[in-house]
């Protein structure tokens, strides 16, 4: 079982109201000087080995389903499993 | 400007309906053999240097605000910025 992680974040030029809300809440709680952007993290357990073909598929899946590429960037990476 | 990343994922023993929905949708789109769990990713830009004290604060903030520790695990890590 291998694990692939897909990180999806709002593009830099896109407003991020969730992140803004979190930043504001942190300030009110006394945590100053932190600017937060909020995105999504998908942990994907892959049956069998993670070949280049499999990674390509996951890249396609991320583009089609996991991220809205109009407003979000995504990154696919293989994570070492202990 | 340094960047700290907080990953928040549903605990292993907790059902993850979002992840289940994504897994099902991937299967219907023809991507078989993938099991997805969905969590959140927070990218935090820190003013100044990331000292151990600062990291401790962010850890507290993650515990109080970013994660619901009853049902979610979180991990804090410093990310290299190019």
From TrEMBL, chains A, B:
UniProt keyword Nucleotide-binding, yes or no: yes
Catalytic activity: N(2)-formyl-N(1)-(5-phospho-beta-D-ribosyl)glycinamide + L-glutamine + ATP + H2O = 2-formamido-N(1)-(5-O-phospho-beta-D-ribosyl)acetamidine + L-glutamate + ADP + phosphate + H(+)
Pathway(s) served: Purine metabolism; IMP biosynthesis via de novo pathway; 5-amino-1-(5-phospho-D-ribosyl)imidazole from N(2)-formyl-N(1)-(5-phospho-D-ribosyl)glycinamide: step 1/2
EC number: 6.3.5.3
Keyword RNA-binding (UniProt): no
One GO cellular component, as annotated: cytoplasm
UniProt-listed NCBIfam families: phosphoribosylformylglycinamidine synthase subunit PurS, PRK05974.1
Free-text function comment from the UniProt entry: Part of the phosphoribosylformylglycinamidine synthase complex involved in the purines biosynthetic pathway. Catalyzes the ATP-dependent conversion of formylglycinamide ribonucleotide (FGAR) and glutamine to yield formylglycinamidine ribonucleotide (FGAM) and glutamate. The FGAM synthase complex is composed of three subunits. PurQ produces an ammonia molecule by converting glutamine to glutamate. PurL transfers the ammonia molecule to FGAR to form FGAM in an ATP-dependent manner.
Name recorded for this polypeptide: Phosphoribosylformylglycinamidine synthase subunit PurS
Gene that encodes the chain: purS
């Amino acid at each position: 079982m291998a694990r692939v992680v897909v990180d999806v974040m709002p593009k830099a030029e896109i407003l991020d109201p969730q992140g803004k809300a979190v930043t504001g809440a942190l300030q009110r709680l006394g945590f100053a000087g932190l600017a937060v952007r909020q995105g999504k993290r998908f942990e994907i357990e892959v049956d069998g080995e993670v070949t280049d073909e499999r990674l390509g598929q996951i890249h396609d899946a991320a583009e089609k389903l996991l991220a809205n590429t109009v407003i979000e960037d995504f990154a696919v990476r293989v994570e070492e499993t202990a």
